[in-house]
Structures are given as C-alpha cells and as structure tokens.
Amino acid sequence: MPQRKSHTKSRRGCLQCKQRHVKCDEATPSCSYCIKREITCSFLSPSDDNTTSLDASPSGQLGHAPSPAPGSTDTRLLELRLMHNWSTKAFKSLRQHSDETYLWQVVVPELALSHEYLLNALLALSARHLSFEDPTWDRAALDYEDRALTGFQLVLGSLDSSNYEAIFACSILIMVFSLAQSHWQHSRQLSDALMDVLELRQFLAGVGLIHKDYSDLLRLSSFGTLFNPHTPGNLESGNGTGVPLPEMCRIVDSVLELLRVEAAQSVHAGSHSSAISDLSQAMGAYCSGGIMTGIMTWPVTFRDHYVNLIETRDPMALAILAHYGVIIHLLQDRWWAADAGKRLVHAILPILLESKREWAELVQRSWSAVASEQSSQNTPISGL
C-alpha cells in the first residue's frame, strides 16, 4: 500500500477546521473550507490561544445564545437573531441551485409567518446551524425542534389546500435536522443510525399524501424549482476523491444493478426491487440534474414490508439501506449532512459481514467511490 502523503500541520488554522480535523489554508477573513461549506470562519486571537475574538461568535458581537423566558424581550431578540442568521447564511445550505435563493430566503420565511410549526422548524434549523460552531445554541435548537415536531404532528392529519405548501416545507426542514443529528450524537450507538431512518419514515409517513394529492400544484408553485433539473456540469466532489460526480454515480448505480439482479431472486423480491428502483431514481435525479429532494425523501417511500425487513436485519434490505448512506454522503459538503451517510454505512457493514459478506463487499465498492481516502480507511472492511 502506498504511503500517505505527509503535510505540514496547520498551527493557526480556523476553529472550524480544527473541529473537523482537516487542514486549514489559514486564508482570511474566511478559509476555503468554510467558504465552500458556507459557514462562519473564525480564528483564535493571536494574543490569546484560549479565547476567541468577537468575530469568532457566529452572531458577531451579540455573543452566545441566551436562555430567555417565553414571551420576553429576550425571546424576541433571540428569534430576531435566528431569523437574521437564516436569511443571511443558513438558508444557503438548502439550495440545490442559485435559482432557489428566493424560495428559501423569502418565500419560506413568509409562509412561516402564517404557520407556527414551520416557523419553529425554521428557527430550529437556524439554531442548529449556529450550534455547529457554537454549542451554546444547542438548547435553543432543541427547544424549537420540539415545538416544530409537536405542531407538525398535529397538522399532518388535516392536510388541505391551505397548508400543503407549509407542510411540505416543514417536512424538508425536519429531514435536514434529522440528518444533522449525526454531528451532535457521536456518543450514541452506531446501531441507532438504523433506527433514526425508520423513525423518520414513521414520523413523515403522512407526507406521502402531499406527493399523491398535491404534486402537480407543488410543481406549479414557488416550490416547483425544487423539481426542476439543473446541470451540475463536471464539478468534482468536495470529499477529496477528485472523482467527478457523474463517475461516482455511475459506479454506485452499477453496484445497485448487481443488487437488483440478486433481489429479483429473493423471496422478498417485490419490496427489495421497489426500494432499489426508488433509490436509483433519486440518485439519478441528483447526479444528472442536481435535484437532491428525492434523496432526502427516499425513506418516506418505504413500504411497510421493507421496514419490517430492515427491523429483522434482512441482509438485502440492509445492503440497499447502506447505499442510501453512500448516496447521502454525496451531500457531505452541506454542514447538516457531513457525517450522516458515513454513520449509517458504518452501522450496517458489520451486520452484513456476518450475514452476507459478498454484499458487504458491494457496499464497500460503492463507499470507496464516494468517500475520501481517510473515510475509506475508517470503514470497518477497508481491508477488503
């Protein structure tokens, strides 16, 4: 095996690169890593290695997140700060293309003014974005997430023409902060990554009605841009492989095709084949047109029987689910998806190694196509 290229350790890198254990180019005011991920870049003060400067705070001179009483002046200040962060920074990570700027920066916040559960979801994700750099925002993020989920569950049973847009927008935000959990929950068991996917599917089960009854209206609304393909060109993945996105997708799709052949011979062929087809279609929409909505909503398409197969650790069902993790890893440049795919793949591979090693090898082949050298070496079967 060739030796890894050595590099000079960055001594004055930004806090974000230090936290992610990546080399910082130390460019100011923002390094290339932070610019690419559209997050605030902050450096330690040269005179004090233990104290951050005012600019290091995600909210500038306003400091850390307060813990205000409901309805207080501090609450209004907190929410103003969260809305400002959303409209200037956080919304950018949801864009698939610059055409969606107006949707996420203007349309969704305006819609949230009439639907409290959507407003709480927006504030929750904004707080999550801030807590990515400053953990003092964790409490605010959890509070608003809880309110958003409670309100969302109540309204999901009364879907109609007056709220389908708000419910659809809220479902996307819920999916995003579900994926973002992997950054804050490294202490949890890896097997929890499996349950997170199933819980998300159960929680959003009713969202399928939106696609069934309001799909045409959504495409004609401001949300239509989410379904319009864009040309990603030959942009390379930001994960360090240097492999163009279309080539990575071709490799993963070829492995899915091998699984499809195997699935056709199983006693659960219907559930397996349906899951593979939906996942392959979602990946194709992203690789050819930059549409990531299908990838994010794939768990919502699970049939009940496929869910049962995952719960009983059916090897083929797990091999398919592992490829969802592989494909989610394509989005890792977005702060909320950074570790989600890797965590899911790492949870499934040891199970497959014991039950169906040849399928574990197929997952490894796909993972190697999308993961950086360092990530591949951290995979449980990297020696295969």
UniProtKB/TrEMBL annotation:
<dbReference type="InterPro" id="IPR021858">
    <property type="entry name" value="Fun_TF"/>
</dbReference>
<protein>
    <recommendedName>
        <fullName>Zn(2)-C6 fungal-type domain-containing protein</fullName>
    </recommendedName>
</protein>
<dbReference type="InterPro" id="IPR001138">
    <property type="entry name" value="Zn2Cys6_DnaBD"/>
</dbReference>
<dbReference type="GO" id="GO:0001228">
    <property type="term" value="F:DNA-binding transcription activator activity, RNA polymerase II-specific"/>
</dbReference>
<dbReference type="InterPro" id="IPR036864">
    <property type="entry name" value="Zn2-C6_fun-type_DNA-bd_sf"/>
</dbReference>
<dbReference type="Pfam" id="PF11951">
    <property type="entry name" value="Fungal_trans_2"/>
</dbReference>
<feature type="region of interest" description="Disordered">
    <location>
        <begin position="52"/>
        <end position="74"/>
    </location>
</feature>
<dbReference type="GO" id="GO:0008270">
    <property type="term" value="F:zinc ion binding"/>
</dbReference>
<dbReference type="InterPro" id="IPR053157">
    <property type="entry name" value="Sterol_Uptake_Regulator"/>
</dbReference>
<keyword id="KW-0539">Nucleus</keyword>
<feature type="domain" description="Zn(2)-C6 fungal-type">
    <location>
        <begin position="13"/>
        <end position="43"/>
    </location>
</feature>
<dbReference type="Pfam" id="PF00172">
    <property type="entry name" value="Zn_clus"/>
</dbReference>
